[in-house]
Design goal:
about 220 residues, mainly beta, five-stranded mixed beta sheet, about 5% helix, globular
Length: about 220
């Protein structure tokens, strides 16, 4: 039989990607939904309104995080744990970002998750199309319309690795999309494998190689 639509989850703008729970990454069982079911399974969406949204499998929206001020194209979760989770996102604002999702602990089941942007990843000169994390969460790959693929570790630097842009709008932009605590991160390596826009990049099993596709 053909698949049947069960429900829909409206967003404020285009939904660009969806990322489902990886094995071993669970929200504490004491944090329950309004229906009383434990939120130990979830999926994450990215949208052109710049927000990351986290839903449980009862289709309840449990958290919305405004990570980017421009359309977001991709989201994944490197190295999740039971108390916090690292969100990696890519956007048309020419950056990717690493944000920490802090989940409520077992003693505060009524608390809501919180999100803090830790680092912005600077390399690309055109909109980013995708971001992907390896199995153990130590590295992410970014692809962009500039034809480049960035390789990044997920260590948050103690100081900026990329200089800030100059100009009168600098402080305004920082207040709007991340604040002074967000560190500017440089890539560990750059892959120049394409001669046109790169539309997607993924890790292969084993995390020692990657596959990408482009408009070339």
């Amino acid at each position: 039989m053909p698949p049947q639509k069960m429900s829909s989850l409206p967003h404020e703008d285009w939904v660009s990607s969806i990322f489902c729970q990886v094995p071993g990454c669970v929200i504490p069982s004491t944090f329950t939904s309004s229906s009383g079911l434990p939120l130990n399974s979830y999926f994450i969406t990215s949208s052109y309104d710049g927000n990351v949204r986290i839903f449980n499998y009862t289709q309840e929206l449990i958290h919305t995080a405004p990570v980017h001020a421009a359309p977001m194209t991709s989201v994944c979760t490197p190295n999740p744990s039971s108390s916090s989770m690292l969100l990696a996102t890519a956007s048309h604002d020419l950056t990717a970002r690493l944000s920490e999702l802090i989940l409520p602990d077992s003693t505060s089941p009524t608390d809501r998750p919180q999100t803090k942007t830790l680092a912005s990843l600077h390399l690309h000169t055109a909109p980013l199309s995708s971001i992907a994390a390896n199995t153990n969460g130590t590295h992410v790959l970014t692809s962009s319309w500039d034809g480049l693929i960035g390789v990044w570790d997920t260590i948050i630097p103690e100081k900026d690795e990329v200089p800030h842009e100059s100009g009168p709008d600098r402080q305004k932009k920082r207040r709007k999309v991340g604040g002074d605590d967000m560190k500017r991160k440089a890539p560990a390596s750059v892959l120049k494998s394409h001669t046109a826009r790169v539309s997607k990049v993924v890790w292969e099993h084993g995390d020692n190689s990657a596959v990408s596709c482009g408009l070339d």
